[in-house]
Write a structure and sequence with these properties.
The protein is mainly alpha-helical. The protein has eight helices and four strands, in the order ααββαββααααα. α2 packs across α5 and α2 packs antiparallel against α7.
Amino acid sequence: MKVSIFVLFWVTIVAASNDDERLPSKCEVCKFLTVELQEALEKTGRSKEVLELGEVLDTGKRRRKIKYNTSETRLTDAVDNICERILQYNVHAERPGSLRYAKGASQTMTTLKNLVHKGVKVDLGMPFELWDEPSVEVSDMKKQCETMLEEYEEVVEDWYFHHQDERLENFLCLNHVLRTSDQECLKEVWKGDMGAKGETDTAENDKSKTENTHDASEL
């Protein structure tokens, strides 16, 4: 009984924080749009497929051949439904800034599901079957992604055909979409579990101290 009361209280706190949820910023939308598009293009970057363009004329003139990995077709294939991939993201409320958006289940949701499987009653105000549906934030990011992609379609094409030596995130987000004051989220990088990192750093420091002590004893 005590466990149930604690869980309901904790869920109430989580729900209250969700009421204060914010919609994705333009910076965050651009960041994850470029992440997904860059990833989609990298999957086909080494293709050796050759496309034949144009029609064979009565004169017997051959079709023009072009490599798939430099073709407009490759870009079209990558862009197609790219914003649908945003729906694979979840909100990780325990993380700061743009890092709250990531694929995979959040720690909070994983904990709640484990409690349900143990028989604890957890009420999130929706059926258990809907817990994995895209959140309001993620759904809004998808819509913003579609709008941004349509608005900056020519910029993306310019990058693809002439500036692939530059990161898409820099070319699109920094140079065209965002003002300088709105670019902060691009600097945020997920470094994994900081707790585990802290343990590793501590272990390395202890090892270093041990080695220094050993060297001193030899002197």
